[in-house]
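Hi all, long-time lurker, first post. I run a small reading group and we've been trying to get comfortable going from sequence to structure in the token notation. Rather than ask abstract questions, I figured I'd post a concrete chain and ask someone more experienced to write out its structure so we can walk through it together at our next meeting. Sequence below, copied exactly:
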Amino acid sequence: MSSETQDAYLATRSQIDLTAPVWRRLALTLLIAGAAALPFFLSDYRTFQLTLTLAYAIALLGLNILTGYSGQISLGHGAFFAIGAYVAAIMMDRWGLPYWSTIPVAGVVCLAAGFLFGLPALRLEGLYLALATFALAVVTPQILKYKGIEEWTGGVQGIVIIKPDAPFGLPLSADRWLYLFTLAITVVMFIAGVRLIRGRIGRALIAIRDHPTAASAMGINISLYKSVTFGVSALYTGVGGALGAIAVQFVAPDSFGFFLSISFLVGLVVGGLASISGAIYGALFIQFVPNVADNISKSAPWAIYGFFLLAFMYAMPSGVAGAIRGIAERVSARFKRHQ
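-- Answer (accepted) --
Happy to help. Here is the structure in token form:
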């Protein structure tokens, strides 16, 4: 592995080191506890928005594994988000299965779909791969409207599902319970993502991204790793889609248009490429900035949205996670100088 690849890996590992000092683990525990307490101080609508934010964060983490760490550009992850959402909706509405059982199934289905899509896409690189995934994003809503499968997908009308109530008679509203359920899955998915990136697979992905020729010479099966990465990325996105569908209580083809895939890419860049925490920041941007823009100007909300996006890119070219990391490094260096 070259010195540049080693430096990239060490930088990545330093961001997500699970052997960090006790205070960092304690801070993470307090952060999770604070996130769990949030719905008890917010309205059901705000809690619903945060639930969607967590679903987007899982999807963005999957996209970051593919694009940030593996270097494969995707403009079609909205399609996998749609597949996960429809799997959950069909299982709940058509088969009457419990909501929690739909999450792993949605992940497995998207894992298979992503792996199979990744196989022919191995011959494509850069913009050509982006165009292939663009085609996937464009065609998915049309397939969901196809009359031949309308019995399952609901066609243009979509599927309405029931939001689950809290189990065991817990004194929680449906929105609060679903938020806590989604938060628990988010924590599990992020821990799994950290383990993946810190391990052998993560090192191989970074080597493939930075120096594919050197990685191949070292014996790394580039084709296999790229296909598996595409599948794992789709798995994360499908889980996010299933959680999002349960929260919204409705799925329809037009909800998963090409703009959703663009929003994921925007969230990825705003949050920070090759950053685990960047998925959270990007999800917050996706969920709340359009609402803020709409409140500022009803007549031209997308102009305001574009202004916010330009401001983020100008002020934080390495993403929110990169900006926070830079501030932390400067504060740490200043602290050490004064010791």
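A couple of things your group might point at:
The chain has 15 helices and two strands.
Strands lie at 159-160, 250-251.
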